[in-house]
């Protein structure tokens, strides 16, 4: 049976399924983020933009931060309020948001959420929004795929990566294929879902902007940010993953990119 193309996203429409597919029982992403915030003396007010299910926002809250989790998906936000209470959760679009001028000491954007800004205008709008949201000296912490990794490398491309897991008694299988659109500077993702409950296969398509380290550094500088860290690991999604006490690296060659930048000028 050929797959049907879904108009919506199976994972964001089903937060429990998302957490089953991408488990993080040790809250590694949030612990890495808290380590960055501590090392650079960030204040307590944190905006987690693109917070998804709220796991990371809730962990930062438990670490003593005053956290606002923001996402565009009402379903994700409802799940976060119910299952990961503590932060304030609000609906906001990372392509442009206004949650108060100088309202936060840090803006956090994890798991390649920033790369859903596909165009230069969207990137400028995101960074302008972060600049407006941050108090002087505030931090921007980002974690994402590294566009530089795909210069001449094809090991992650064109061949499906298969993952299988069980959720609510149903066995799911996802086959994910990545391709590079060089003209648009996008990493395109096609994911085909199958399940053993007799439902038809579902094909979903999405994309990330491919940002290169020096390009990201230039964009940040243009919006008044000083880059404090820019490296490929260790991080929450690297191999080996980050551990407590690990200091940031200096290279930007592997497939993940981590950035910490401080706002040095205001609009």
TrEMBL record:
Keyword Transferase in record: yes
GO molecular function annotations of the record: methyltransferase activity
Keywords assigned: Methyltransferase, S-adenosyl-L-methionine, Transferase
Domain Methyltransferase as annotated: residue spans: 46-138
GO biological process entries: methylation
Pfam (any one): Methyltransf_25
CDD domains the UniProt entry points to: AdoMet_MTases
Protein name (database record): SAM-dependent methyltransferase
Organism encoding this protein: Streptomyces rishiriensis
């Amino acid at each position: 049976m050929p797959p049907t193309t879904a108009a919506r996203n199976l994972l964001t429409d089903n937060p429990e399924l998302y957490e089953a597919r991408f488990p993080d029982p040790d809250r590694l992403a949030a612990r890495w983020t808290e380590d960055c915030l501590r090392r650079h003396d960030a204040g307590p007010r944190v905006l987690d933009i693109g917070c998804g299910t709220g796991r990371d926002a809730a962990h930062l809250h438990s670490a003593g931060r005053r956290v606002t989790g923001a996402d565009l998906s009402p379903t994700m936000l409802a799940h976060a309020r119910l299952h990961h209470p503590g932060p304030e959760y609000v609906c906001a679009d990372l392509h442009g948001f206004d949650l108060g001028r100088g309202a936060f000491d840090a803006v956090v954007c994890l798991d390649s959420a920033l790369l859903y800004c596909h165009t230069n205008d969207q990137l400028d709008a995101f960074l302008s929004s972060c600049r407006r949201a941050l108090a002087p000296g505030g931090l921007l912490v980002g974690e994402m795929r590294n566009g530089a990794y795909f210069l001449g490398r094809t090991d992650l491309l064109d061949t499906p990566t298969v993952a299988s897991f069980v959720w609510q008694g149903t066995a799911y299988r996802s086959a994910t294929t990545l391709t590079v659109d060089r003209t648009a500077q996008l990493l395109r993702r096609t994911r085909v879902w199958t399940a053993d409950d007799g439902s038809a296969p579902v094909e979903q398509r999405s994309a990330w902007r491919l940002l290169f380290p020096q390009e990201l550094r230039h964009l940040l500088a243009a919006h008044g940010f000083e880059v404090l860290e820019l490296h490929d690991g260790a991080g929450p999604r690297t191999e080996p993953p980050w551990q407590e006490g690990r200091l940031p690296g200096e290279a930007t060659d592997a497939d993940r990119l981590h950035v910490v930048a401080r706002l040095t000028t205001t609009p």
